[in-house]
Design a protein that fits this description.
This protein is of the alpha/beta class. It has helices at residues 25-40, 55-63, 77-87, 108-117, 126-136, 173-187, 204-215, 228-237, 250-253, 258-265, 291-300, 302-319, 322-335; strands spanning 4-9, 14-16, 19-21, 45-50, 67-71, 93-98, 120-123, 141-142, 162-167, 192-198, 219-225, 240-243, 269-273, 286-288. Helix content is 44%, strand content 20%. Strand 5 (67-71), helix 3 and strand 6 (93-98) form a beta-alpha-beta unit. 41% of the residues are buried.
């Protein structure tokens, strides 16, 4: 098999002694972890962070690759668009890996152009696959996101107040804010402490303090800055993970199941809004329209929780392990 190269925004890539890293989930799930998995399978795979200052260096690396995968570049779209256009041909295939539905926003032109220029398009969910086809007329392939964190023993043992967790990009925080009034209502019956793990949200700590002054008897909020280590620690310490979604926003419906995968893999039950990519977990998590109903369900069905988590972990190991995702990429390169 020919060399594989992922091209990502340089600002999103961190070079460490252990190899490339990133604070951006899409770079880890869609480039670093698959690259590592392909290497473990004996394939020459690498990742390059590009910006205008090092574009000539990246051109030379592209010239030596047979499969080149670009991901989104919202910071400098022209840089990636120029390189993907130049990279076409010479017995080389260029791919665009599209993981966001931003066709109706400022990034629409960038996504449209990258899809048009790519020889092949790959994406993360069936919903986004249909969205790409509708907006561009181009077919795409699906490769899922791998789990990332440590596997945790399935656990359900609340002690006093229910310890809930929300984690993710600040971009998704609006979904939590929208569902907070219903969580307050649920907490009047089932008091809970909700830890929020995210980054880059100004004023969130002050917001939590004011919220707690008003609602502390039922629900308290606590903010912790995001890091991967903090995410794993918070998952280990919580009883349940809450994943609200903006069900009236099309970009939400196209999301991958990465957060539900991470949570269940960590051994914690999930109460989530039912977006399409979560359907595989309909029998192993609680999915519905009202997270308050989900909290009531888990509190009334404690004997079902551990078994559901264990079944979810079996599914995740089979379909979403880094090794399985690397195999999916390899098969795609060989057959598409």
């Amino acid at each position: 098999m020919s060399k594989v190269l992922w091209v990502v925004p340089r600002e999103a890539l961190i070079e460490t002694a252990a190899g490339p890293a990133s604070d951006l989930a899409s770079v880890r799930y869609r480039a670093i972890i698959p690259m590592q998995g392909l290497r473990a399978r004996g394939i020459d795979a690498s990742i390059a962070g590009v910006d205008r200052a090092n574009a000539d260096e990246i051109r030379s690396r592209i010239a030596g690759a047979g499969e080149v995968v670009f991901i989104k570049n919202y910071g400098d779209p022209v840089c990636s668009e120029t390189l993907i256009e130049e990279a076409r041909g010479d017995d080389r295939r260029v791919w665009f890996d599209l993981t966001d539905d931003r066709f109706d926003g400022e990034a629409s032109e960038h996504l449209q152009r990258m899809v048009k220029l790519a020889d092949r398009v790959v994406t993360v969910s069936a919903t986004l696959q249909q969205t790409i086809l509708r907006h561009t007329g181009k077919n795409s392939y699906i490769v899922g996101d791998p789990y990332e964190g440590p596997r945790g023993a399935p656990r359900w043992a609340p002690d006093g107040r229910l310890k809930a967790l929300w984690f993710g990009n600040g971009w998704n925080l609006q979904a939590l804010m929208k569902t907070l009034p219903r969580l307050v209502e649920a907490a009047r019956t089932f008091p809970l402490d909700l830890q929020i793990v995210t980054g880059g949200v100004n004023g969130l700590e002050r917001y939590c303090d004011k919220f707690n002054q008003k609602n502390a008897g039922a629900i308290t909020l606590a903010y912790l800055p995001w890091s991967r280590a903090q995410t794993w620690d918070s998952l280990a310490a919580c009883d349940v993970v809450l994943i609200p979604a903006l069900l009236d926003e099309v970009w939400t419906l196209a999301k991958s199941p990465n957060r539900i995968i991470e949570s269940l893999w960590a051994g914690r039950f999930v109460v989530a809004h039912a977006i399409p990519s979560y359907r595989d977990f309909a029998d192993t998590a609680w999915l519905g329209d009202d997270l308050a109903d989900g909290i009531a369900w888990v509190m009334h069905n404690p004997d079902a929780i551990v078994n559901r988590i264990a079944r979810a972990q079996a599914l995740i190991e089979q379909s979403y392990s880094p090794a399985q995702i690397a195999h999916s990429w390899e098969r795609l390169f060989e057959t598409a």
